[in-house]
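Hi W., the calcium ion complex you wanted:
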Amino acid sequence: MQQRIVVLAGGIGGARFLRGLKSAVPDADITVIGNTGDDIHLFGLKVCPDLDTVMYTLGGGIHEEQGWGRAGESFAVKEELAAYGVGPEWFGLGDRDFATHIVRTQMIGAGYPLSAVTEALCRRWQPGVRLLPMSDDRVETHVLIDDPDSEGRKAVHFQEYWVRLHAATPAHAIVPVGAEEAKPAPGVLEAIAAADVILFPPSNPVVSVGTILAVPGVREAVASAAAPVVGLSPIVGNAPVRGMADKVLEAVGVESTAAAVARHYGAGLIDGWLVDTVDADAVAEVESAGIRCRSVPLMMTDVEATARMAAQALALAEEVRA
Ligand code: GDP
Ligand code: CA
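Structure:
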């Protein structure tokens, strides 16, 4: 029977891993539960950066070097908006990308839930996976930072913290606003319950996978699933491979090491964990926390290398199942 794999994914790390997974097991039935905590409303449009990064990457429309946004992009709309003095100028929306957000916003305005809209957008892109938003309800990650204009603190949208401020100011707390009242999107809990294997790709443990797990019912469903749960470390050599995950890990009191991230998820949630070969020393520490661990190359340099990582994750899942 077709292997059913569920992946909890953020943007770039999740999308690149999924491309390798599809190459490693082309016949598998893959359901992706995507993070929507990074979603933002701009110019009256609903933008879903992580869902779109997965959709464009698997659908062949991604800007390869950048890792997000469309290939062959132009920025005429952005320039025209700037000529009117209408920002924000720090969020890069290209002309091609704008079309996606217009279609999405139009469908949501007509009453379709985000899950149905995402399915409709995927009919064009044919990502070869079932892409589900974690929730149809609005969840927005906010970051508590020092307010430069007062003695106090203020909450800013995750994108403002990440893209405008480059995570350069200390984050005191990460709050998925709306998560407590959110419901998992249709199909999310069912996919987790029916999965043969559940994977955490090398996605951000706090603001990508952590936000998905914050939707009530999702963490419990993963923890109690019959399927083995295996994660791949986004931290290699005590630093994020790309981006600023160390900053949001610090905000939740977790060291930026492969072992600390495994312990943060915990043995109650994950059964297996892959660390990079440079972190081979971490294997014993992770295993002493009750999580089966192996060190293998974890750099997604190309699809072949990423496919080998995916195959290693599936092999570890079989090992913990046995
Ligand atoms: P985002 O939503 O675009 O930030 O993407 P994700 O949350 O899916 O993934 C971000 C994480 O992927 C970062 O913490 C990176 O350290 C990690 N990452 C990116 N490229 C690689 C890679 O080649 N190998 C590993 N192990 N992690 C990676
Ligand atoms: Ca993201």
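Residues 37 and 140 are 5 Å apart (CA to CA).

W.
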